[in-house]
Specification:
By secondary structure, this protein is of the alpha/beta class. It has helices spanning 11-23, 47-55, 112-125, 149-161, 176-182, 197-204, 220-231, 258-265, 274-278, 284-293, 320-336, and strands spanning 2-5, 27-30, 38-42, 59-63, 83-86, 92-95, 99-105, 129-131, 166-169, 186-189, 210-213, 236-240, 270-272, 298-303, 317-318, 340-341. It contains 11 helices and 16 strands. It is elongated, with a radius of gyration of 21 Å.
Length: 352
């Protein structure tokens, strides 16, 4: 149950009720919301406790969330939440709210020179966060699996050289210390690991922002249930990346119909990845425009200076000039929907 208190309720009264509920074996999570106190009460309420809550003078609303998912429920916040990514030697990028962001980078970190060249193109285009895979989940065991820990270091160094926060996919709970040690700003849980609950719990303990991709054939309810594992401990960003259907014209089927529904059901920010949805570079720009028009907080695309030479997913990688045009289009679409494009971070260069 979600308890929404009246504006101006003293925090001491909220905490007194929280203590009482916890003494009765119920878990309570206080929303970070500042506009009004909101408390999620997790567990089975007996008749006595339910009656006391219904009579509580300070509680204005008592809501039963969809599927019992309290922490991702829209009512757990007054407004959609905003997730801050980065800081330190990189810019802080806000995902969610009234600004649209563009995340871009290579599918895989292939070499120090390649990721630095790509990072420079991402920054020059006006994109906001650098993506890059160091551990790659590949269908074929013979395909390029990534550079591992060294790839994380190279990605972080390239990001810092251009003031860009970085996001990279984590596949194994055992690798969490390596991601933290490398200073990765945001962890990505990929589609194949959306329901890897051991990984979700390990990632949650870092407290770092997490991009949670929708599973290959996951329903929205399953996706939000996975997000609930994370939401009590770390900021979560959802990412729609296409689902597997009978259609083979594209790599997957991009499900933009879920965006307005997610706005009703959850406060979490929402990204769209048209690259993995389509697998076809030339249709990524129109899909990006459509995603922003449908309400996405940003898009995540792939870019490579020489896609034909890419060690993975070259057919869905944009050229640097195409990324520049995509960012310009994102600015226009954001304005059309009453928002703005996030201000690009000032380019900074890390010491050699």
């Amino acid at each position: 149950m979600i308890l929404r208190f009246a504006h101006g309720t003293p925090e001491c009264e909220v905490q007194a009720l929280r203590s009482l509920l916890e003494e009765r074996g119920l878990a309570c999570v206080r929303s970070p919301e500042e506009r009004r106190p909101i408390l999620a009460v997790i567990g089975q309420l007996d008749a006595r406790t339910r009656g006391e809550l219904e009579r509580h003078a300070r509680i204005e609303e008592r809501l039963e969330p969809r599927l019992g998912l309290d922490l991702v429920e829209r009512a757990f916040r007054e407004r959609p939440s905003v997730v801050a990514v980065g800081g330190g030697r990189s810019a802080t990028v806000r995902v969610g709210g009234d600004e649209v962001v563009v995340i871009a980078g290579p599918c895989s970190v292939e070499s120090r020179a390649q990721v630095r060249e790509t990072a420079a193109a991402v920054a020059q285009a006006g994109a906001h966060i650098l993506r890059g895979g160091a551990f790659k989940p590949r269908t074929s065991p013979h395909a390029f699996q990534g550079l591992g820990v060294e790839g994380l270091r190279q990605l972080k160094q390239a990001g810092e050289a251009h003031g860009l926060p970085v996001v990279s996919e984590i596949m194994d709970a055992a690798d969490v210390p390596a991601f933290v040690a490398a200073g990765i700003d945001c962890l990505q849980v990929g589609a194949r690991n959306m329901q890897n609950f051991t990984l979700l719990k390990a990632v949650a303990r870092t407290g770092l922002p997490v991009v949670l991709k929708r599973g290959l054939a996951a329903t929205v309810d399953e996706w939000l249930s996975a997000a609930e594992y994370l939401a009590g401990s770390c900021p979560v960003i959802l990412c729609e990346r296409g689902i597997r259907t009978f259609e083979r014209a594209t790599r997957n089927t991009l499900d933009l119909t879920v965006l307005p529904l997610l706005r009703e059901w959850t406060h979490l920010p929402i990204l769209v990845d048209p690259a993995h949805a389509s697998g076809i570079a030339r249709i990524i720009p129109p899909l990006s425009r459509a995603a922003i028009a449908a309400g996405a907080d940003g898009v995540a695309v792939e870019v490579h200076p020489r896609p034909a030479e890419a060690l993975s997913d070259g057919p869905q990688a944009l050229l640097p000039a195409e990324l520049t045009r995509l960012v310009a289009d994102a600015r226009v679409m954001a304005a059309v929907t009453g928002r703005g494009l996030h201000e690009s971070p000032s380019a900074v260069r890390a010491p050699a």
